[in-house]
Amino acid sequence: MPRPPESSRRASFDDWGPYGLLAVGTVTAAVAARAVGMSRDELYAALALLAAALLLQLVWGPVTGHRRVPSRTSAGLYFLRWALAFALTWLNPFFAFYAVAGYYSAGHQLPRRLVLPGLCLTAVTMAGSEIGGMPPHGVVLWIGFVVVLGANIGLVAVFTRFALQEQERLSAQAGTIAELERTNTALQQALDENAALHAQLLLQAREAGVADERRRLAAEIHDTIAQGLTGIIAQLQVVANATDLTTARTHLDRASSLARHSLGEARRSVHNLAPVALTVDGLPEALRKTVAEWGERTGVRAEFTVTGTTEQLHDEVSATLLRIAQEALSNAARHAAAHRLGVTLSYMGDEVSLDIRDDGTGFDPAAVPARTHAAGFGLDGMRARAERIAGTFAVESEPGGGTALSARVPLVRDDR
User: Fold this and answer.
1) How far apart are CA 90 and CA 214, in angstroms?
2) Were both Cys, which of 91, 103, 284, 359 would link to 402 (CB 3.0–4.6 Å)?
3) What percent of the chain has pLDDT over 70?
4) How far apart are CA 303 and CA 338, in angstroms?
């Protein structure tokens, strides 16, 4: 059975302890009344004092409002009880049982400056009882009284010091607990705010993704389909002005090749509008298939590797990395003239890294001209995608030395 808390036990003693001690003192004093030589007047005085003590205990709670903190009222009642207990003990030393309550209640009924005086007064009452009653008769009893009083006061001082130290320790402990609670509350608030900011970031990333896809498609149409159609028109114009069948057939073949290429580019652009591959597979498998298909289409030896412990990523993170990979592979097919290409997806604790390396012609990153149409695609577009979800994008390349692209983004797990 669990023990009640200290405050509950103290409140219970404050309410009922003095009654019990007064009852024990009354019974023992009544039994020993003849032995200690109490006169009839002393018996009547004791009965009057007992009635006053009982009345004091009855009004104590209502007067103090049952508060367990020191106040002028509680201090006045404490010293009144001591006076009644001292007078009763003067009449019969066995009434000292009632005075014992002063030892227990001084710490929480008296202001701190009055605790020691209150305990010393209680010690006087107890010392008088221990030598057989007040006042001492003869030099020997006076000496005994002084010795016993000194012993009582010494014990009071020792136990008071221990009590104060314990009180300070408990106060410090309570302060530490309160500080920990405040810290935990602040930490929880920070975690809640972080979760809200994270959700807001992903929402903004989705909204920005829509606009980004529109810009990307515009650039794709301009750079591929529109240019292909322009080339087809140019070839057909040559055919229209050709004077011989061989020349016309040659340019018709070129126009047909451009049409097929433009159709392929249109299909690829539509495919890249949304990461359809992620609707069936996770990011690693989607990347594996994308790299394999790219290698078959271009004839370049392409390899895909996964390192670390695979995690189920948030849709926005997976889509961002897949689109970066698709853009990088598209750039490599157009410009790198590579023989080998490698893609590595790395799970690194709280980050995910996507690295694409090729042994192609390379380039000087500082000399890459700014795009003049729908700016923000190519390398800039890949960097914008990574930064939109609080990631980074880096390029390492040099003419004739191949190219290495690296995108590092936070590892945000799927919250479903």
Assistant:
1) 102
2) 359
3) 83
4) 13
Question: What percent of the chain is modeled with pLDDT above 90?
Answer: 18
411: number of Cβ within 10 Å: 17
- The Cα–Cα gap between 263 and 224 comes to 10
Alpha-carbon torsion, ordered 161, 124, 126, 108, to 10 deg: -40
Specify the residue for token string 């039994």.
Answer: 31
User: What is d(CA 51, CA 34) in angstroms, rounded to the nearest whole number?
Assistant: 21
Q: How far apart are CA 163 and CA 155, in angstroms?
A: 12
Handedness of CA 84, 87, 89, 92 (dihedral sign): negative
Strand partners, 182: none
Amino acid letter for position 226: A
- pTM beyond 0.70: no
Beta bridge partners of 342: 303, 357
Side chain identity at 297, as an amino acid letter?
A: R
Close Cβ partners of 84 (under 8 Å, ≥ 6 residues apart): 49, 52, 53, 56, 98
At residue 310, what are phi and psi to the nearest 5 degrees? -65, 135
For residues 121 and 82, is the Cβ–Cβ distance under 8 A? Answer: yes
Q: What angle do CA 357, 362, 366 make, to 5 degrees?
A: 110
- Single out the residue of 200, 191, 192, 194 nearest to residue 389, CA to CA: 200
**Burial class for 2, CB neighbours closer than 10 Å (0-12, 13-18, 19+):** exposed
Q: Tell me the torsion sign for CA atoms 147, 151, 152, 154.
A: positive
Angle formed at CA 70 by CA 64 and CA 75, multiple of 5 degrees: 75
Q: How confident is the model at residue 272 (pLDDT cuts 50, 70, 90)?
A: low
CB atoms within 10 A of CB 398: 11
Give, as one character, the DSSP assignment of residue 333: I
Q: Tens digits of per-residue pLDDT, 149-179?
A: 888 888 777 767 776 776 788 788 888 898 8
- Rounded to whole angstroms, the Cα distance separating 321 from 324 reads 5
Q: Is 137 helix (H, G, I), strand (E, B) or coil?
A: coil
* Residue count (the chain): 416
Q: Which residues pair with 232 in a beta bridge?
A: none
One-letter amino acid identity for 132?
Answer: G
The span from the CA of 118 to the CA of 247, in Å, is 123
302 exposure class (CB count in 10 Å sphere: 0-12, 13-18, 19+): buried
